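Box 4.2: Ligand-aware structure prediction
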Amino acid sequence: MTGRHFVEQRMDEQLLERVGCYCSECYREFRIGESAYYDLHEYRYVCGGCAENLTQSREGESSEIPEEMNEASLF
Ligand SMILES: [Zn+2]
């Protein structure tokens, strides 16, 4: 589900030191052993909850057909 937008990575000490301890979206602290998600669009790490929310909003945006825009462009 997160494959297109995020890469799941297991946090370890090295990764924590390299990327910092906090989710870039909600600033929750990562813990060693939990999963962090690398954002392929914005090149940052976020937590599982934020990855899910961001995936949903991105999928929503791309699947919506902007019918109103088509009508508006006629005028
Ligand atoms: Zn987060």
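In the box above, the bound molecule is zinc ion. The chain has a mean pLDDT of 85.
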